[in-house]
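Side project, low priority. Logging it here so it doesn't get lost.
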Amino acid sequence: MRPFSKTRLALSATFVFCIVFNVELAQPEGLSLSVLALLIGTLVLVATNRLVLVRERRFLVSFGLTLPALYLSFVHTQLLQSDAQTLALLYLKTQVYVFVAICVFWSLFLRAARSTPEQLSQFVMASIVWAFAAQALFVLYSFVSPEFRASIDGLLLAKGNLTGLEGFRFKGLANSGGANLSMAMSFAAAMAAYLAIAARRPVYAMLALLILAASALVGRSGLVGFAVIGLAFLVRTLLAADLPRLRTIGALTVVGGLAALGVAAADMSPDDDTMLWWNWFSGEAVDSLGELWGMYTHDPSIVDLLVGKGVFEVEPVGNAASDPGYLKAVFAVGVPAALLFYAGLLVVYVSGARAFASMASNKRIAATFVALLVFLIFFYESKESMAFQNFTGRLMLFAFLLFKIIAAADAVRQHRLGAARPEPLHEPT
């Protein structure tokens, strides 16, 4: 990875932190760091006449596939006269939000950069990794400082089912925590591990361990995610590498990751258990799996399966509580429209993954990495809605759409260079 200036990397990481975590303050109510970041970035770009509206064809294809589900969700809500959150509202809010963030990020940090597409994609990953490293420090400080947790709890708008005062759950500088934050951190840790290999920068192996250790204090989902994508990827690529230095980085990351799990599992004190200890050794993990399985054992009517009930959050219309994103989508719009909806999301993620792999110098390693990412996104949708909302959805849509846009911009540039190149002259025969 070409060494971008530290100032640019710090600013881009700050921007990503604001966009992904979308920290909302309690006072004044409704003010968020993401709004401030987008407002400041847009003003700077407008003042300097550098704002660019990016275009991506696969993005429009995904909207075409998801349109029936979004339309049905809207019609349902009107018929029910319900003000609950709908699939259409959540998806459109996220897509518009991510689209604006991508336009600002591209215009500020990538458009004028004199770098190869691979270097730009690695810069996007590096910005994400450093943003999550900062969040990891907030999480770890929350772990050792109850006073910091109390002050953050009073400063931020409370969301989700966690408060900063719970002794066994930690969310750092975020409005909510739990599985979605933990999963997002595991993706960032995996990106750090990839950069340690692709960019040959050992510092990213250390950042992967830092983020992993913090993820252990947030929730168990991230640890499982890193075990699947991080450790499997490292074993697949690093331990078979030709360079001794890469094997050392891989071994260090694997051993350090397992050590981090052991430290996180330690019983720190009777009144301040870690999330990992609380869930795995108190038996609550088994109860949680049982509750998750129970969500899949509903007995919906044929009508519900075909057209749903209209509301993504299912409680307002009488359904039992449901966390999995697939079930929420089925309850919202029915099975056929839900299949089209997730097919549209799959178009976005697969096209972004293919673009990322095409830009990499080692395409086999890159393809393995992004394939694991896409698999895990849709695998974890079976546990909780992550593919298009909350921390994980914002992070992954932001990254994968940027990968596709970087590749598309390079293709346009190559086409223009080819068109400008004169035809070779041939001697008459």
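Brief comment: The first helix runs from residue 6 to 21.
Revisit when time allows.
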